[in-house]
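Standup notes
- DV: blocked on the single-chain target, sequence here:
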Amino acid sequence: MQDWSGLFNEINNAGSYLYSFFGAILFKLFGYHELLLPVVNLFFGMLVVALTGIIVNRIWGARPAQLSALIIGLYPFAAFNSAIALREEPSILAFMFGLYFLVKWLQEESRAGIYLCLAFFGLATMIHPGWVAAIFGVGVYALLLLFKALPRIVQGSLVTRGYFHNILTAGSIVILSLLLSAAGEVTLGKGISLGSEEETVAELIESQFTGMPQGGSAYPTVIATGDPFSRPWLIPARIVYFLFSPFPWDISSPQQALGMISSVLYLFLVWKIFKNWKTIRQHQECVALLIILALLTFIFAIGVTNIGTAIRHKTKFLALFIILAAVSFDSIRFRLLRR
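- DV (later): unblocked, structure below
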């Protein structure tokens, strides 16, 4: 409804306004239609399925890639994100491109890979601030690379040009992460931020356990409220509820019973990751992905007190769970996959 100058004055990445701005651009270019944004999100969802298969194929091979694409393509809550106009799908797509270039960097020592990775993670963070955990995850992994490289440098061991470039890149990522932390009011999603002068990180975490849970699928009060430092079991309990709820005792309607699809899938994926831990940790790209997964899970889990909201948020990085769990998908046989 605004002219172009007025529209560009409305650019704001707070909340979901960036997605609204993107939609307004499409409407001004092509005219308004109620299905325009859902069609764009559907296309984004197809790309997410394809990227999941491509990344799994790079790490584990073709057959696990087939099953991985099948799982994420048929998971109803992932399909939901690409069926209506939500900011989740474009942010997931940007995150998936970031994962692809991260894997490319670690497998091929691609100089452009890490910078494209951070660029796409940054774009995802602009759409939804919780994705900043992915940037910090890369920073943590870069710090590990630096610590592993120090003995070789001190002992004067031969360092290849590519390895030296990775060390320099890792150092720059660590510096970037530290600058983000020191910048002040860096939002990690769901009210958690770093660098705030008013509150420490501990106080911000504690604040996530003070409000009463709301909604028809709210967490039990014993999980949602309390002092997480005097009762340290609250944090792992919140993470367990985030990943595996709803549990049978949480279901009070047939609609909520549909959430058991999520519970079963994530139990299966986490079990596969745990069972094949020794194999996964031998791949440096998987170690980086595990760090990112851990940070994303922690940040979103701390800020969520509703089962429905938990399902929506953890679906954002379902592909990351699948990529890691796909290590043993080649041993699973389905008739649908037989040629």
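- Follow-up: Residues 136 and 189 are 13 Å apart (CA to CA).
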